[in-house]
Structures are given as C-alpha cells and as structure tokens.
Amino acid sequence: QVQLVESGGGLVQAGDSLRLSCAASGRSFSTYVMAWFRQAPGKEREFVAAISGGARRTAYTDSVKARFTISRDNAKNGVYLQMNSLKPEDAAVYYCAARQDIILTTSQYPYWGQGTQVTVSS
Prior knowledge:
Low-confidence stretches: none
Largest sheet: 7 strands, mixed
Mean pLDDT: 97
Radius of gyration: 13 Å
Structural class: mainly beta
Strand content: over 45%
Shape: globular
Distance between the termini: 40 Å
Number of strands: 11
C-alpha cells in the first residue's frame, strides 16, 4: 500500500504558476503509476495527468496540455505537477493518486491523497 499527501495549493491570479507536490510513503514507489486528478465544485472528479513508474511516459487531459507538467522523483518518493498559465477554470481541489501498474490509465486508482485546494482569481 501507499499513502499520499499533497501540498502546494493556494490562491493565485490567472496567468500565474503553481507547483503541487505529492509525498508518498510505502515501498516500491517506482512500481506505481502516479496521477493527478481535480474536482471543481459541482463537477465530477476529472483526470489531469499521469506518469509511469520510470517517468518515461506521461499523459495529460487536453485542457492542460502545454501548460501543466507532471514529474516524479523516485529517490524522494515524490510526484509533482507544475501548472503554468493558470486559468480560472483550473480552480479545483487537486488529488494525487497511485496505481501499482505499468499501464497509464485515467481511472481505477485505488490510492488517493486528501487533496489540496487551488484557487485562481481572474
């Protein structure tokens, strides 16, 4: 099993950048696909980005491509989401998720963090 704790959320203005971090505890972190999801008020939780265990493969939802970058540091058991050119529609609670697999997927992650709030003012 793995436990996840997000950090780095906050209030920013449109066009600003923010970097989210997710600290994972547990063994074999490099065997987990890691992902970020987000949920805005009144909306369903949506996939944002994922990264393979060895960091060679990534996937993004279309709305964040070219603006967000997912990365990981297996030596530190950490995964990150660099968010640039933030828009008001990016405001949401962002969740880190983990799945022990080699396949990048947009769903079926059994392990979740508690979330970190990102607010973007226009």
